[in-house]
Design brief:
Blueprint: H1 2-16, H2 20-39, E1 45-49, E2 56-65, E3 74-76, H3 77-83, E4 92-97, H4 104-131, E5 137-146, E6 149-153, E7 158-161, E8 177-187, E9 192-197, H5 201-211, H6 213-216, E10 220-228, E11 232-239, H7 246-251, H8 256-264, E12 269-274, H9 279-286, E13 292-298, E14 303-308, H10 313-317, H11 322-331, E15 334-339, H12 349-352, H13 365-371, H14 376-385, H15 391-403, H16 410-459, H17 471-479, H18 485-489, H19 493-496, H20 504-521
Parallel strand pairs: 2-3, 7-9, 11-12, 14-15
Antiparallel strand pairs: 1-2, 2-4, 5-6, 5-8, 6-7, 8-9, 10-11, 13-14
């Protein structure tokens, strides 16, 4: 029997990966619990286990007295001396207890304690094992669905892929292989739970480290990753070896490396961007595939205005602003995209001059003077020499100022002033027309923007518009994190029936109705 205990402990230790010392402590705790159940006492107990022979000795303490009043805690001097002849009254004596006398109930209790202690040891081992793996990738098998969460079999442990960490439009069935990022580890009295993620940027980083050996070797370095799951990812890389192209190494021969990652992400687009310490070069790379014509930097506001060709605007901005939004996050700058036709050119001559109303008009005052009756090129030359080049300059000079110019008398000055006032009226009229056109264009742009926003809003139909489904079922779906019909249209029926109040028939109606409404909306 004693040898059998040693063999059993050794076998459990090997199978469960539990230290034998932990198993021995569990055995001692179980025997103490069983002994207290048998003796119904709180007296001190002593349990000795011989690791060589497997022998177990259980003893409990009693006080030696001349006259026994409490048999559970006291022993007479005569009985005590039969065990230990040298014992005296008032001393404590350890009384051996035969394990065979514990009884069925005490033995069952001991078994439960051992099972519980072994289970706790298993949980601790799994918890410590996965604590070291936090931030890594792990493979598992989809086991079942629970309230929108996916329960994954990881072998020794159970993984949970919460709804918030799932990629929209990705769907899995029971038995599917799944690769995920280990986000966190949780521990309960029942088990150790591994929290998984398919949306974390760590998933992208780990996949590139697996597919691109140069990253693990330190030849290529990942500088930054920004991601909108199931939409687009931008990753900035740089090389520490002049002979190695960072982008080319990540893409691989014929795109094999990056395509392997795209397949794992179920078709998510990936832009691999070469990092640069020069912000302008970096933003050009980040906005790829759009071609940048010019960049205006505002260092004070940490902002860049990007000028692109008119046919490149939609490409630079991306679907629903995705490309420019990710690029801004990657370079950590505010970005404003403008087309060349509507861009304000800070390098033009008119913008280098002080801002005046003349810049809003295309009327050449001196040119008009040179062709005017009674004035001509001679007067034009005199005005130019006197730095009187605009209608405003003439009005500011007045008749007195103009008459002071060599070659211009009072009569000629009056004629020039009258001509300048007419030109001034033309300029004001032209300004009004320009302002009216600008206002009309702005209102048109606002209207178009509003329409675009309405169209974008119409693309996502909220779940409460789902027809032919009971309000209670819709409420259950909302409580489990479903928000739009698009989500429901790609959700498996097996996942829906895990939700309280939704059976297979209701789940079928929900999915089919969501698909039907989305199709009719398009």
């Amino acid at each position: 029997m004693n040898k059998e205990i040693l063999e059993i402990l050794s076998q459990i230790g090997r199978e469960k990966g539990i230290d034998e010392e932990i198993l021995i402590d569990a055995l001692k705790d179980a025997l103490e619990t069983a002994a207290r159940k048998k003796l119904e006492t709180n007296s001190p107990l002593q349990i000795e286990f011989n690791r060589e022979t497997g022998e177990i000795e259980v003893s409990f303490e009693k006080t030696v007295v001349n006259e026994v009043t409490n048999s559970k805690e006291e022993i007479s001097l005569e009985d005590a001396q039969s065990i230990n002849p040298e014992v005296k009254t008032g001393e404590s004596l350890l009384i051996p207890l035969a394990i065979e006398n514990f009884g069925r109930i005490a033995a069952q209790l001991a078994k439960q304690v051992i099972v519980q202690k072994v289970r706790e040891a298993e949980i601790d081992i799994v918890y410590k094992d996965f604590q070291d793996k936090k931030g890594e990738l792990i493979n598992g098998i989809v086991q079942h669905f629970q309230g929108g969460d996916i329960i994954v079999d990881l072998g020794k442990a159970e993984g949970i892929l919460p709804r918030r960490e799932q990629v929209f439009r990705e769907s899995f069935s029971r038995g599917d292989r799944i690769r995920a990022y280990i986000l966190d580890i949780g521990k309960t009295a029942r088990n150790a739970t591994v929290i998984l993620s398919r949306t974390h940027i760590g998933l992208i980083r780990n996949l590139f480290e697996l597919e691109v050996p140069e990253i693990n070797e330190g030849i290529i370095e990942i500088i930054g990753i920004v991601r909108e799951p199931n939409g687009r990812t931008k990753i900035a890389v740089k090389t520490n070896d002049r002979d190695v192209d960072a982008v080319g190494a990540c893409v691989g021969m014929r795109g094999m490396r990056v395509q392997s990652i795209v397949q794992e992400l179920r078709g998510e687009k990936i832009d691999i961007v070469e990092h640069s310490d020069d912000p302008e070069v970096f933003i050009r790379n980040a906005l790829s595939p759009a071609k940048v014509s010019r960049i205006i930097t505002n260092s004070e506001n940490n902002q860049m205005t990007i000028i692109v060709a008119d046919d490149q605007i939609s490409l630079a901005i991306g679907k629903k602003g995705q490309n420019v939004r990710l690029a801004a996050k990657l370079v950590k700058l505010k970005i404003d995209i403008q087309g060349q036709s509507g861009a304000h050119d800070p390098l033009s001559i008119s913008n280098l001059l002080p801002t005046t109303k003349k810049s809003t008009s295309s009327i050449n005052f001196l040119g008009e003077i040179s062709t005017a009756k009674g004035l001509g090129e001679k007067i034009t030359a005199i005005l130019f020499e006197g730095n009187v080049v605009t209608a405003e300059n003439v009005i500011e000079q007045g008749i007195k100022g103009l008459s002071s110019l060599p070659g211009i008398g009072p009569k000629k000055a009056t004629l020039i002033l009258e001509f300048a006032e007419k030109i001034k009226e033309k300029i004001i009229e032209k300004q009004r027309e320009d302002e009216s056109l600008a206002k009309t264009a702005e209102e048109t742009q606002i209207t178009e923007t509003s329409e675009e926003q309405e169209e974008e809003q119409e693309e996502e139909i909220p779940i409460d518009q789902l027809r032919e489904v009971s309000p209670s079922a819709i409420e259950s779906l909302l409580k489990n994190g479903f928000e739009t019909l698009a989500e429901l249209s790609v959700t498996k029926k097996e996942e829906l029936i895990e939700i309280d109040g939704i059976d297979l028939e209701t789940a079928t109606i929900i999915v089919e109705q969501a698909k039907k409404q989305l199709a009719s909306d398009e």
